[in-house]
Amino acid sequence: MKSYTAQRRLSLILRYILLVILAIVWIFPIVWIVLASFSYNDTGFVSTIIPNKFTLQNYIGIFTSKQFPFVNWILNTTFVSVVSATLSTLVTICVAYVLSRLRFRMRKPFLQIALVLGMFPGFMSMIALYYILKSFNMLNLFGLILVYVGGAGLGFYVAKGFFDTIPTAIDEAAEMDGATQWQTFIHIGLPMSRPIIVYTALMAFIGPWIDFIFSGIILSSSGNAKSYTIAYGLYNMVHATKGTSTMYFTQFIAGCVIIAIPITVLFVIMQKFYVNGITAGADKG
Amino acid sequence: MFKRKAKKPKEATYREVWQHGDLATKLSFFIMGFAQLKNKQWVKGLSFLITEVVFLIWMVFSGVSALSMLTTLGTIKHKQVVFDKTQGVYITKMPDNSVVILLFGVLAVILVIAMIGLYVANLRSVRHLYALKRDGEHVPTNGEDLASLLDKKLYGTLLAIPIAGVVAFTILPTVYMISMAFTNYDSKHPIGFSWTGFAAFKNVLSGDLAGTFFPVLGWTLVWAICATATTFFFGVLLAMLIESKGIKHKGFWRTIFVIVYAVPQFISLLMMAQFLDLQGPLNTLLLNWGWIAHPINFISASANPMVARITVIIVNMWIGVPVSMLVSTAIIQNLPQDQIEAARIDGANAFQIFRSVTFPQILFVMAPALIQQFIGNINNFNVIFLLTGGYPMNNNYNGAGDTDLLVTWLYNLVFGQTQRYNASAVLGILIFIISATVSLIAYRRTNAFKEG
């Protein structure tokens, strides 16, 4: 019996060692990003793990930079995120609720069309959207909001998976009592969907903070750095402005850390919903 | 789950409606909304009528010309100087802007289709009214009609705006791009271009782009398989490790890995590119430890293609394993324990249990999600674009590098030097065909698996 306990203990120790090694490997680059944001550097190239000299200058620099209007980027992105998160959530919840709870003639075709449309690479529509917005003179933050909200009608899978898990008996009971479908939606559907509303809204809020492709395509043509969103602005800082980019590289990292921390915290808090979403989408009906 | 409702017999045929209907009913075959107005359904009737009037006005003033120009995409293809007889001077004629012509042409086609749909809806409504009156039943009043929008027809009310959004921001752009694949829209014809049928397809499949398309397609498929398989397999293993007996603070360990996934990709991948640079910290560290004599060229322009491809797959594991870990954790926690117990009593060791009991069950639950991940990886733009940018460049390729996937190549064709918009549209269609085929076959197989 003693050898069994010893074996168990050995196995546990080995597993802990493995876990610690893996955790270090995984978290190491992230720690390096944070460390690099504090490093004093004038060559624009971070080649060390632990900075030789710590400084807060990068953080001060990014907020006072004339060339890169970081504060404007934050304001722009906040505006786009808040408006599009509100509208997208409304759209997504409506579509998900209808497709999950109500039965009508075009339901199946709609689900199939959504599936097929999702298989076209997003770029195709992106490039076309650029021309469409251009011919309507909408290559600005409002155009960007329209694009985000316009796509929300197809991003209903996670929310639909959630609604599918609520027993329909509740709706039927309400119907028996003479409630209209609208009343059922407002008084039963919506209150029960609070978790998924929060999830959808936060996801729609995060979207504009991390999207650099779409915002880049739409906003770059103005050539006005003040109109950028944060993700495109930061991306542009290292890529489009080759030559000066290395000079500001550590400032870029500081900017990234400022953005990454709240987004990361939000995501870690919501990971449970995220899993539910994936596994709910897994059993297709 | 839901039984298909027995098909109701048609209440009346259109022929009957036409023959026996009154004047208003007959008129509403041409002027939408007439029958409804006569039966005091003002709201419905007026909306039909106004839509038709607006549509006809639009047709006369711009719809017809938009549709007719769609056949040629504009007659003037090149900038030319012509003699204007009426003014007696030479004037420069700019080429017609085919991009705009095509856009408004597609828009016009969509509007016409929507109008036909509305016309059919109108006919149905007229037929319903006719049947109600013929059978002496109650004709819904305005109020009742409006109330049904919040009850029996709530789906229409809630879906109206989202569907408009989908049509405007997904269907219109997709149709627009698909039609671009049949033109010669490229850097040589940047303004005035014309229909060329399948010429662009031929170019990609057997012309000057074929030498790039097939190798890139091959790598895209290899990448998608490797990326999906590695993240899934190691995600499951990691989840098993964290979930195994005796490990404390499981939530804490999970969170450590999730952080990596949660950091926005444009940050983590751009920094990863820096981290793996020839002069980056990883090489410095390995040199200092004395593990390598020369810095390794992981992903830069002069890297070995094989090294770069392996690096991309490994970095993708860094990002993708935590997601698989999260999902498989959820599945592992819900696995029925009795089978595992039974296997253990029968003397199976941990590995055998994993191979024959746990893993197949996880695979079973995750199969549909894995197909989605596979499609997602075929279209995985971020990892390649941010990490390698397609590097190392391949001289045998036309505007693509060794790590470029079809989607990043598509991006290069549009925003790079070549500006081959038609070829990029063809690529988009081909990617769609590949994705659709894969998922069709896979879903069929998993469904068969489920039933069997």
TrEMBL record, chain A:
It is found in: Cell membrane. Its main location: membrane. Gene3D superfamilies: MetI-like. InterPro entries: BP-dep_ABC_trans_perm, MetI-like, MetI-like_sf. SUPFAM superfamilies: MetI-like. It is a multi-pass membrane protein. Keywords: Cell membrane, Membrane, Sugar transport, Transmembrane, Transmembrane helix, Transport. It holds the Pfam family BPD_transp_1. The keyword Transcription does not apply. Residues 74-270 form the ABC transmembrane type-1 domain. Belongs to the binding-protein-dependent transport system permease family. MalFG subfamily. This is Sugar ABC transporter permease. It comes from Lacticaseibacillus pabuli.
From TrEMBL, chain B:
It is a multi-pass membrane protein. Coiled coil: none annotated. It comes from the Bacteria. InterPro entries: MetI-like, MetI-like_sf. Residues 217-442 form the ABC transmembrane type-1 domain. Keywords: Cell membrane, Membrane, Sugar transport, Transmembrane, Transmembrane helix, Transport. The keyword RNA-binding does not apply. SUPFAM superfamilies: MalF N-terminal region-like, MetI-like. It is found in: Cell membrane. The chain crosses the membrane at residues 42-61, 99-121, 154-178, 216-240, 252-276, 310-332, 353-375, 421-443. Belongs to the binding-protein-dependent transport system permease family. MalFG subfamily. Part of the ABC transporter complex MalEFGK involved in maltose/maltodextrin import. Probably responsible for the translocation of the substrate across the membrane. This is Maltose/maltodextrin transport system permease protein.
